[in-house]
Amino acid sequence: MEEQTNPIINKVSNGGKNNLIAALESLLFIYGEPIGLEKIAELLEVKQEELGEVISGFEIRLKTDNSRGLILNRINNQIQLTTKPDFQKLGEKIIKEEIKENLTPATLETLSIVAYNGPIARSAIDYLRGVNSGYILRNLLVRGLIERCPDPRRPYVFLYNVSFDFLKHMGLAKQEELPEYQKYKDLVETFKPQA
């Protein structure tokens, strides 16, 4: 039987640092939240020293390319891909528009997943929906319908749950009072990835 290799490793061996930078950019986009350097090195299957070079190269590209709207933020041993400060007003405008509008079907879907399965990690929400949910989760956080807290079992992972405001708006004392709560919680459990 032929040994399977990681596609990232194949890309790196064929394209070097440029492909590692592209893999890093994809990872940061998909993750959407601060992620630890150890976790990145593990996912990309590179050593810390090599990862440092890749991050520096990516950071330089983002800073020197004026056609890019993103920057790399670093806090302690975590990094996150974020919008350049030059576009802060655009971000504020989008958030204000989102708050004024009714909840979209995608937002309601995400809110339902959180309501019936919270506390739940963003990766599980993305898996269940089949798409990146970062923007929708931010929208729900801004509206005060959900809350985010660190996962006590996994560093650098956040769990999402409905807020007290959500329960208040729904006229509920607790999450378990949602219509057919146990039925839908059990149903979604069957679709969750096995750990």
TrEMBL record:
A Pfam family this chain is assigned to: SMC_ScpB
Gene Ontology biological-process entries: cell division; chromosome separation
Keyword annotations from UniProtKB, A to Z: Cell cycle, Cell division, Chromosome partition, Cytoplasm
Record-linked Gene3D superfamilies: Winged helix-like DNA-binding domain superfamily/Winged helix DNA-binding domain (1.10.10.10)
Domain of life assignment: Bacteria
Matching InterPro entries: ScpB_csome_segregation, WH-like_DNA-bd_sf, WH_DNA-bd_sf
Protein name: SMC-Scp complex subunit ScpB
